[in-house]
Design brief:
Layout lengths: L1 H23 L3 E6 L9 H8 L13 E4 L5 H11 L3 H14 L6 E2 L3 H10 L3 E6 L7 E6 L2
Parallel strand pairs: 2-3, 2-4
Antiparallel strand pairs: 1-4, 1-5
């Protein structure tokens, strides 16, 4: 019985690790509404928009970044791959910006599904999701490396 329990525990741990690895290795993309005229953005533009350093799309329209919830594996994956920033570096960055009154972090949404829905509804928003979640109403403007 103990041996069976050990086997089951080992299997569950292995499956959990695979799920985490799948999330970490997900293909992230940056999306905008299909009503937004922007066809693509550069990595530099993505970084500037999501760090509050740029408030406009390349065409001059307002850019409103949306974020996934704090501690979300997808959020961590996005910032690490797109900007080489860890969760603690990102929190430190926004603490400085907020303290000096120079800006505020992107508005957090509840989930990736909410991200897609809100981006589809508002041509000025920009967000990021796993590529598999891209749906009608949004378009990919940048593939996270």
């Amino acid at each position: 019985m103990k041996r069976d329990l050990k086997n089951v525990t080992a299997i569950l741990i292995g499956l959990g690790a695979l799920l985490v690895m799948g999330t970490v290795n997900a293909e992230m993309v940056v999306i905008v509404s299909d009503k937004n005229p922007t066809a693509s953005v550069s990595q530099a533009d993505v970084e500037k928009i999501f760090l509050g350093k740029m408030k406009l799309f390349p065409d001059g329209s307002s850019a409103i970044p949306l974020d996934l919830p704090e501690k979300s594996p997808e959020k961590n994956n996005f910032y690490e791959k797109a900007m080489s920033k860890t969760d603690s570096q990102l929190r430190a960055y926004w603490s400085r910006i907020i303290f000096t009154g120079a800006g505020a972090p992107p508005k957090a949404v509840e989930s990736s599904a909410d991200m897609v829905k809100l981006v589809a509804e508002n041509p000025n928003t920009i967000g990021y999701v796993d590529k598999s979640l891209v749906a009608p109403g949004v378009k990919v403007v940048w593939q996270v490396p």
